[in-house]
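Teaching assistant's notes for section 4

Start the section by putting this record on the projector. Ask students to predict, before seeing the second block, whether Two-component system response regulator will look compact or extended. Collect guesses on the board.
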Amino acid sequence: MNFYLLNSRNKNASKIQNIIESDFSNSLVGTSSNIDDAYDDLLQLRVDILIIACSDDISFGIDLIKKLISVRIKPRFIMIGPSETNAISKEEAYNVGIDFYLEPPFNSVEFKHIVRLVAYHCQLLSKLSEIYKITSGINTPFNQPQSRHRQQTDKINSILRFLGIASETGNDDIIKIMRIMVDQNISFSSIDFMRDLSLDERGKKVVFQRIRRALRVGINNLAGMCIEYPENEILLEYANCLFEYQNIYIEIQKLRGIDIHRGQISIQHFFDGLLQESNNDNLK
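Reveal the predicted structure now:
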């Protein structure tokens, strides 16, 4: 099982971490004390169980759960509350989707038992999913919500590597934006950059500049491949779907030594095309 620990100055954090890692079948894939950092990590990592340790206000964890559910990322949730929590706050925690709420004082035996129960539940769902796939040969309702996300993310990463921009500075920005689009199944124009990525207009401008530099590298690489293999269908599909072919054509002319003015790269066209490509051949 893959665990993630969100810790808000909880004095039992080290005990929690030791209990998780004492079982060799468990892996603590990340920790954070900041909601935004944890949210970003969970967009990128495969997390089966999220443990939220709150020292004073459980809204610290409730806000993160709501944010994750809004983009359809739903690991199992275990919350360790503060010493003084009113009934309404505890009820709200259960209403947003936690599986267990542990009240102080922290009991190591109880925590270990609950971790095993939740882990067993995750393993059971995974086995049911595999059985259903084998017997029905169709998509299963027992799939973990992240499985489709991972398939599309793998395809996106593969395309970015193919274009030769995986090592560019803007690559991380591309992946973050694509995860939002995949999770919410929305177009680029529908992204709420402030809510989902904490980017104001100035922040967006900086990010878009990094992305455009990365895309320029991708266009150059793809144009070079198109010169070498002009009839390759995959190259032509990427040229049209990701960059609009006229941009690739202009880059081909420049590589051949022809002085021609470059056009403006459409970031929206690239992201919408990349989302379309991520859905091809992997969810049949």
